Amino acid sequence: MATAEQLKALIKSHTSSNDEHFRTVALQIAAHTAKQGNTRLADELRALVEEGRRKQATAGTPRAIPIARPSGELAGLVAASYPNTRLIDMVLTESIRHQLEEAVQQHRQRDRLRTHGFAPKRRLLLVGPPGCGKTMTATALAGECQLPLMFVQLHSLITKYMGETAAKLHVVFDAMAETRGVYLFDEFDAIGATRTAGNDVGEIRRVLNSFLQFMERDDSDSIIVAATNFMEMLDDALFRRFDDVIRYSPPNSKAIRSLIESRLSSFTLTGLRWQKLLTAAKGLSHAEVARSCDAAARTTILGGDTTLTGDQLVQALSARSGMRLHSPKSRKKTSHD
């Protein structure tokens, strides 16, 4: 029979309408059932999953809008995808979860707000250290709102030629009105750096002023998400243009435990000594803890098992910490100490 964690994962994926995760957990339950000797039930479960997959492929899943496929000049400026990630897949503080759920709710009821002369929250600034979930937040917002994620590619957007970056920004903002989506400006400090910065001040001012003007004029139904690791570098004028500033921080012990339990919800976990796990995870970001969980999960799956031990997880976390210690930045810091 299914474990308690597998049942919880099944219910979570159902309530969040995450069909792919639902099927994955169902197949894991089938494998667990077969291992216990009930091959008939396992075969029936697999057949039901496959039947559901065929029906969905035949009927198609209705979307709010068709998948966006950038063309022309826009094709080199944004990369489009259609994520299935939901907020339930993320480990967030109550404050951040409330801010994001509020934005999603307002987007879903934007017509109602507009009939009363108000616009929904649709301009979000995400700030915090690397790997704390800023990019995944944009992905989850797109999944929740059933919108394409339009990842603005800064390497194509920012050029050395005077005025060209502003012209390309104009193309992106025009696209927001034509194709509703979640437009992500990652590493936003490249655009929004303060106008008092010492490097090429004139061009920085022109690009930032253009962005501020486009933000003022934009009245589309698209969601704009800007993410940065360096809030202190942003120009003060930017903060007035965003509806909400969401601050992320490295995971504490509670968040690490929740992340591990959530990421490995489809496995049977044994021999967990949380203090040892938390010690091994100390200093790691959300993304690094998630990747450690994935590494331990892959080892378990390839070993033909669905039971993951605490020692396997500690080993994966310690390996990830070792990568950080041997990174060029860490070596440089150590040499200066």
From TrEMBL:
Entry keyword Nucleotide-binding: yes
Coiled coil regions, renumbered to chain: none
Pfam families: AAA
GO molecular function annotations of the record: ATP binding; ATP hydrolysis activity
Residues annotated as signal peptide: none
SUPFAM superfamilies referenced in this protein's UniProt entry, alphabetically: P-loop containing nucleoside triphosphate hydrolases (SSF52540)
Protein known as: ATP-binding protein
Native source organism of the sequence: Telmatocola sphagniphila
Lineage of the species this protein comes from: Bacteria, Pseudomonadati, Planctomycetota, Planctomycetia, Gemmatales
